[in-house]
Amino acid sequence: MEIFLDAYCIVDVTNHVVEFNVAFTELCGESYRKVLKIGDFCELLRTELCPQQCPGRQIVTSGKTLRLDEVTGSSKAYPQLQIILGGVPINNEGGKCIGALVTIRNVSAESELQKKYYERKEESVIDGLTRLYNKVYAEGLLLRVMKTSLRDGQSFSVLMCDIDHFKKVNDTHGHQAGDYVLSTVAQMLKGEARDSDIVGRFGGEEFLVILPKSDTAGAKIFSERFRKRAESTQIFFEGKRIPVTVSLGTVSFRSAWEPGIDAEQLSKELINKADTALYFAKANGRNQSCQFEDLPGKTTTPEKK
Ligand code: GH3
Ligand code: MG
Ligand code: MG
Asked: Domain range for residue 241?
């Protein structure tokens, strides 16, 4: 065990360390003699379980083996430790538990790496300002929803939402106020949607919402509800009220899968249709929601005023 990279020690029933390897001294940051002198496990290695639920104590009291994967602690050598703890009871010939063998693996470096990995992963899919999914990730999710819908035959809807005359907000109140309005509207949209819905930032002041398992009626209810909410919400920045309205375009999808169907192409077409409906809403005077299914002709985009 001396050559093991993991630290191990043997504790007696009073939780005193009586045997250990070099890795244990390194983990504690104490010399061989100092470890023996200090003795108490909890003094050498303070874990979140110390002192009552200290591993040695748990094993000695229960007489059972122990495995704990996420324990935090600290020692003289390491102010912050993430460790995996394992241990087995040591019994005498009469079967009485007289101590425990405890192994400790220091996984601090791996935990830190994993944390960084998740942070990076989040950064790559989340828009920094609004904390919504970014465009690329939202498009990927749309494709997934599209494929599921083609398989199970259930309808879903896509909404495109754009803040009206947002340039004016920036011009009148400044870019910071614009940023504030953007993140407020984004949070409102997220709040209005269900957990199973997908909300993303699609462009500067444009948002995409995917409503799985929703048909045209559902999309209409959602978009109108959100439009009214945006209109009636009072947004203040540095004491000044900034009136905000939004325009929305919706489209619903329902189609059975057929050989040769191109889900990616269908997703793009769906976005274009939602966009067309949005432009109709803008051309019709803004602060309204428009459904692609209700458009006359359905294919041409009107001139935006
Ligand atoms: P419409 O009603 O037709 O949508 O008019 P609009 O002014 O909202 O649209 P337009 O596309 O002319 O202007 C969008 C503005 O959004 C221009 C751009 O500076 C601003 N914008 C885009 N991204 C951001 C951002 O992250 N922060 C801020 N503050 N402004 C942004
Ligand atoms: Mg706009
Ligand atoms: Mg826009």
From this structure: 126-294
Shared domain check, 138 and 90: no
Rounded to an integer, what distance in angstroms lies between the CA atom of residue 303 and that of residue 67? Answer: 68
| 87-122 per-position pLDDT tens digit | 999 999 999 999 999 999 999 888 888 888 888 888
Please name which ligand lies nearest the alpha carbon of 202. 3
Catalytic residue among 93, 122, 205, 238: 205
Same domain, 55 and 104: yes
Judge whether 205 counts as a catalytic residue: yes
Q: Which amino acid is at 211?
A: L
Distance of CA 28 to the CA centre of its chain: 35
Choose the residue to mutate in 129, 161, 167, 282 for probing ligand 1, maximizing ligand atoms within 8 Å of C-beta.
167
148 and 92 within one domain: no
The string of pLDDT tens digits covering residues 36-53 is 999 999 999 999 998 888
In terms of phi and psi (left: phi > 0; alpha: psi -120 to 50; beta: otherwise), the region of 165 is left
Q: Which residues line ligand 1 (CB under 6 A)?
A: 129, 162-167, 170, 175, 178-179, 182, 204-205, 282, 286
Rounded-to-integer distance, Cα 275 and Cα 248, Å: 9
Domain harbouring 266, CATH code: 3.30.70.270
Q: State pLDDT tens for residues 273-302.
A: 999 999 999 999 999 999 999 998 765 555
Per the domain annotation, does 118 fall within a domain? no
Calculate the average pLDDT of the chain.
Answer: 93
pLDDT at 220 over 80: yes
Q: Is the pTM of this model over 0.85?
A: no
Q: Are residues 20 and 104 in the same domain?
A: yes
In this structure, is residue 199 part of a structural domain?
yes
- At 226, list the tokens: 């959100």
Ligand 1 atom nearest to 286, measured from its CA? 2
Distance 76 CA to ligand 2 centre (A): 58
* Residue indicated by tokens 């907000």: 169
